[in-house]
Amino acid sequence: MSRSGRRRPLILFGLAVLAVLLQGALELTRRPVRQRDYAEKMAAAQKADEAFTTLRRHLRMEGAEIDKVNDPAGTGLVGPEFSLVTNARGDLEAKLTSLNPNWAAVLVELFHRAGLRPGDPVAVAVTGSFPGLNVAVYAALETMELAPVVVTSVGASMWGANDPSFTWLDMERILREERVLHVRSAAATLGGGDDMGQGLSPEGRRLLEASIARNEVPLLGSQNIEEAIAKRMSFFDEALRGRVPKCFVNVGGGVASLGSSQNRILIPRGFAETLEAKNWPRKGTLTLMSDRGVPVIHLLEVASLAREYGLPVAPDYLPEPGEGEIFVRDGYRLELVAAFLLLYGALCAVVLAPEVRRNLLGAVRFRRRAGGAA
């Protein structure tokens, strides 16, 4: 073996070791990097946090007892397991996960993905099942100065806003009276089976109607689920005065939004520019909006969404605004990356150039000798 042939493995080994050392240096010097729209996300999270504090203070003033076992953070936004207005089973882990003001930052990010700008019309459907997420949506809407039209299904699943005397509409009114959040529902339904309170007792439906009446929200009544969906679509059209919404937001598993309980597994969570065509058992307002070309945001499967955006699952504390990877993530120092890249590239050029030149010249000489021999 020639001298250059023996030296080549050593050169390559040395360059590989240097590359590993430089990568190690980059890893050791990573630092927290603020994510896009940091200030806007922080403003929305702080607004949501203020809303949580306001509702908790209201409950204490009313002398309400907070279940510290099922609501370890003491938010007061975890309702009872059962009540006369409970319309479905609920997952306590999901409910606790939703009680985080930093969901408002996630909504800001999703709204930007939808390309929303101040003044854009947004159609929103919420239920009483996730009051924490409702607060987050409202906080993000107001922070980004959007123009929402909200329809609320007042009924709630277990551990949601299912206290008949403290429904989501009551919370919404308190936040408006305290001038914390100003968005209000433009219409309301009973929610639950067929969006008309099916499955509840007559007394349960009466309590929901009483909540709608005392909060002075128009009732969007219907006789069956098809009519409920059609009425919602017409209501959004009229309320938006002919403007097509720039986005549709759905919070929870309201059947008028989903169309059918089977659609829970067919509709992707989070943001979707368009929904893929599927064999829908029935199309709800979410799917019908997508058919019109409206981007949709679907907030369900809360624990999975939380993991996706770096938020804690079922925390036993109330996170502070600004916590989580939605705000800050570790990143490389770009000036070091650029410097190391230049250094390594220059070193490779200096070290490998003679080897490359030698190989090229060797090939030329070989061809000449081969030609002479012929």
Please describe what this structure looks like.
By secondary structure, the protein is α/β, with parallel strands linked by helices. 47% of the residues lie in helices and 10% in strands. The chain is built from 12 helices and 8 strands. The protein has a 6-stranded mixed beta sheet, with helices on both faces. The protein has a two-stranded antiparallel sheet with strand order 1-8. α1 packs antiparallel against α12 and α2 packs across α4. The longest helix is centred in the last third of the chain and has 40 residues. It is elongated. The model has no long low-confidence stretch (mean pLDDT 92).
Q: How would a textbook summarize the main sheet?
A: 6 strands, mixed
- Quick check: average pLDDT? 92
Number of helices: 12
The geometry reads as elongated
Which series of helices and strands comes N to C?
A: HEHHHEHEHEHHEHEHEHEH
Any idea what the radius of gyration is?
Answer: 29 Å
Q: Could you tell me the number of beta strands?
A: 8
**Low-confidence segments:** none
Spatial arrangement of strands, main beta sheet: 4-3-2-5-7-6
Strand content: 5-15%
Secondary structure: helix percent: 40-55%
Secondary-structure-derived class: alpha/beta
State the distance separating the first and last CA atoms: 26 Å
